[in-house]
Write a structure and sequence with these properties.
By secondary structure, the protein is of the alpha/beta class. It is about 30% helix and about 30% strand. Helix 3 links the parallel strand 3 and strand 4.
Length: about 200
């Protein structure tokens, strides 16, 4: 089941939509979720920790939610930065459909929900927020981050939430060694999760 959350472009099984009540950007909303996606019944704990411990996102530019699921991070970014363009990226077509449905239900028109290959190569991000799919394994996770983190703009920040017992500290060490142009730090530990901040240095192009 975990593998299907993250790897399946077209998850098996009938689409069974459900509506749930959530709080995003400090206000209540009703959203739609379904089976065969990550955390269909609520905003998962890791995402809650991330959203509670990140600064206000940039007011404009391109913002990225990497591994968006049904969209709690992307929807929050869109609510808090209505002039920005939010890229909600996932390999799961069912998740992308849910983000589009939720954007429409919430009256948001600044979210692009798409597969990774559909983000134009020239796009550079003012921030990246992500609850990355740790369970895909280090090789896949590292490949994802190697692709997306270099697309941060100068003096921009990526915020990642990672469960402590699933390798947050080793991921921090890897980020430090892999990206010499990023300043990597741990900003928060809460509910068994760590929030990592990776900021591009001023001399980075």
């Amino acid at each position: 089941m975990e593998g299907e959350h993250y790897f399946s472009a077209q998850p098996a099984g009938e689409l069974a939509l459900r509506e749930i009540d959530v709080t995003l950007a400090g206000s209540p909303y009703r959203v739609v979720t379904s089976s065969k996606i990550f955390s269909p019944d609520h905003v998962d704990t890791g995402t809650q920790v991330l959203l509670a411990n990140v600064p206000t996102p940039p007011p404009d530019g391109d913002l990225l939610d990497l591994g968006c699921g049904w969209g709690p991070i992307a929807l929050t970014l869109a609510l808090e930065s209505p002039r920005a363009t939010v890229w909600a990226v996932d390999v799961n077509e069912r998740a992308l459909d849910l983000v589009r449905r939720n954007s429409h239900m919430m009256g948001l028109d600044n979210i692009n929900a798409c597969r990774p290959e559909d983000v134009p190569d020239h796009v550079r991000f003012a921030t990246i927020w992500s609850n990355p799919p740790i369970r895909v394994g280090k090789e896949v996770l590292h490949s994802m981050l190697q692709h997306w983190l270099p697309r941060l703009r100068t003096e921009a920040e990526a915020w990642l939430v990672v469960q402590k017992n699933l390798g947050s500290d080793s991921l921090q060490r890897w980020l430090d060694g892999e990206f010499p142009t990023l300043e990597v730090s741990r900003t928060t530990t809460a509910k068994g999760f760590r929030v990592l901040r990776a900021r591009t240095t001023p001399h980075d192009d």
